[in-house]
Amino acid sequence: MRFSVETWAPEYGASVNWPSIEETDDEVDVEVEKRISDWAPIDSPPPTIPEEIVFIDGIQRIDARIWIHHEGLSTPAVCASLAAGATICRPGQALIEDVKVCRVLIAPASSPASPIKTRHAVYEFAPAADATPEATYRAIHDRRHHMETRVAAAIRSDLIVFDGPLRGRNHHNAVGYVKTHHRFYLTDGLKPVLGDLGDGQRTPLFLIGGGPGGGRWSWYLRLPGPRAHPFAGIVRLELPGVGTADEAVARVGLVGSCLPRFASEPHRESRSPQNLYPIAGLERQLRQRLGDQVFLDRELRIMAAGGTM
Amino acid sequence: MAEIESVGRVLGTDHSTPLAFWVAVGEHQHLQLDDLVAVDRVLPTGEIISIYGVVAKVRARHEGATFDSDVFLIADGVLPAVVSEAAEIQVTRVAPETFVPPLPGAPVRRVVGEERDEALDMTEVERKLPAGLTRESSQPMMLDLDFLDGTKGAHVNISGISGVATKTSYATFLLYSLFNSGVLGAAAANTKALIFNVKGEDLLFLDRPNNRLDEDQRALYGVLGLEARPFRSIGILAPPRRGDPNGTPHTGARTTGVGPLYWTVAQFCRLRLLPFLFADAEDERQQYTIVVHAVTDQLERCARTTPAGDGAVRVAGRTARTFDQLVDVVCDQLQPEDPEEGPDPRWSGRSVTTGTINAFVRRLSSARRHVDHLIRADLADAETHAIDLDSQQVTVVDLHLLHDRAKRFVVGVVLRQAFESKEESGTAEPLQFVVLDELNKYAPRSSSSPIKEILLDVAERGRSLGIILIGAQQTASEVERRIVSNSAVRVVGRLDTAEAGREQYGFLPSAQRQRSTILKPGAMFVSQPRLPVPVLIEFPFPAWATRTAEAGPDSASSGSADPLPDPFAGLT
């Protein structure tokens, strides 16, 4: 496979707004725990330190943008590095385990792409639907999602918090942790409840139907921290939509009593308090494990120029 | 060779150089200061270079923490982080000598067993002097005798704070090791040591076993291949008790086996000892030194031409039997009673002003009360008296009760005697060791004096003459540079913080300098020419008593305790 590396730094091609992966056409049932008329902030049980809680996250980075040349045609493609891992928090100890790193060449499935081997890394071919930025992003995201799921599969724990929506990870111990709100699931009439949430308080449970993976229980929770605006510190959580509402409420209580302890402070975390410490620490470490981008970029250029390993 | 588990790997986030590098310590492993380690590097030619070193720094930190207070989150199990431990290695030896850096990632092993000799460059050393035990492993630490006996180098210099640094104890330990380890071979029997006891009574019981020596300490002597015994052949010289007509030596607690330390007036004159009474007699800026030399000449002439026979000297028709009398008669020559007469030019030197003569007389008179019991011919044995440095293996000259001026006089005169007898003998063997503390007093960095000249002579020519100085001082920065720089072996005990920063300790890497301020008694950094890095050693508790309370039964009198001093002696 002949290819060349875009001379511009990879960030310049990223001027596309990444589309929201969160599904927006789901049906929402807000009356599974409380009637609409009874919607009001609910206190979480007193804080507890869980015996074990696991946070799972992944990151991605575009190492280089390349052009694949074939029969006079040039197809844009992306070389990306991905990593996923878990932070296992026990009283007195937070450990990062099961870190997985992979490097992928994202190109349209129709292109004649094949894996790129450099001296220090191999970019496996991961086909995307087409060459658009959206398809490329979707392909990267799917890969990452897959890696996170594999990390989770190796872990036995009662409480596994995924950074992001569950998206089909419906194991009974899974919790989805959404800190970026692409959509509010509440009607305008219920939104003021969010503003009324005190530190550690949550909204009543609602059921999101349809979408990938079927239904899931969801609720909003306010993490402790300074309140710059009404929605500051608000996160949305998800549980697999199995069991009865009562069972879900019990689980919600457990999550609510455990999470606030991990909320970050503004001077340590640019996305405080939502970016939880175990996740922030994990991301730092994962970024480290991706390796040096300039170094990888140079290796790719050497290979593009016909270099040997 | 059995596979040795590696303790870590050379890390690549800091420079790795042929002289120093960092090692990341592996999980469930540890490295401490002074540990010896080794790492190999295979060259493209296939040659294996072994790089040996000693741990100079160790550090541990949280990787993944950004803020100091992150440690609380990490300890709570909220923020993930890893503890990373790393050690800085100072290279002691590269074998064979190809100076390449160890490569990041290379496994580092602890040096044990026979490889220790490789690491400390002791494989080719033929004559090894046990100099103490390494702190981290309690293994013998050896000195290459070639650098002590004059073959390739000589002299030891010890620095450290009084009381904590145990300088004198280490000097005596070295002597003990020299005499008893067998390193000197047959010459050990004739090798002599001269020790100046400048303070306390520490060195007056070298021939008594130490009853506080426990079995553990005894075992340490065993590790070094030494027996834990007191010194065998000891002679002690002490100045006479003031006002005692018999000239009984005055030593405090030690009462037996002590010889008197004094010079007859005739010796004083004949041996030209007068300049040793003046601290700056060699200083050419001082006018009165002309008078000192003129008077010295005259006294020597008198001693040769008109000896009184019993240790006294006749000067200008008068017999000088005591120092007082000698001073009086000299003063009379310089300052006649008749002011019209003027000084005798043979005694004063030519073109000397009254002021210069007064300066001399003032200094001479002020010496009177400090040395009058040291220079005398009024004792019974005066006729045959001589300072004897040769009949015992170790001669301790006790100065601790003397005034500084008298100390300088005695040190200067005794050293000169030892030096001259070595010069006359013409051979370096058997060696003569000299232990002198407070070098800063006798050979200060600034100013010049007869004693300093002798010490410089010892430092610079002693190596070929076979006279080896084991010098000590609180602060090397105050001692004549040439004396310290001529010492092949340098030892540092606990140092004062300000002192540790001075250039004189440049041979200590910065971490060791810092550590030298917290060394405990009995621990020293020893630097020897073979090793670029000083090694921290500990030496065993003295097997000989260092004060009365420790003195066990006299080994010579086979178990019988010292007779208690009679409390009623002298009463009638």
Features of this protein?
heterodimer; A: about 300 residues; alpha+beta; 12-stranded mixed β-sheet; elongated; B: Elongation Factor Tu (Ef-tu), domain 3; Rossmann fold; 3 domains; 6-stranded antiparallel β-barrel; 15 helices; about 25% helix
Q: Could you tell me the number of beta strands of chain B? A: 20
Query: What structural category characterises the helix and strand content of chain B?
Result: alpha/beta
Number of domains of chain A: 1
By DSSP, the count of extended strands of chain A is: 12
Shape of chain B: elongated
Helix % of chain B is 25-40%
By CATH, the topology of chain A is archaeoglobus fulgidus dsm 4304 fold
- Give the topology string of chain A: H per helix, E per strand: EEEEEEEHEEHEEEHHH
**Overall CATH architecture of the largest domain in chain B:** 3-Layer(aba) Sandwich
Largest interface: A-B, 20 and 14 residues
Mean pLDDT across all amino acids of chain A: 88
Instruction: Indicate the CATH class of chain A.
Output: Alpha Beta
What is the CATH top level name of the largest domain in chain B? Alpha Beta
The oligomerization state is heterodimer
Strand portion of chain A: 25-35%
**Distance N to C terminus of chain B:** 80 Å
* Fraction of residues in H or I helices of chain A: 10-25%
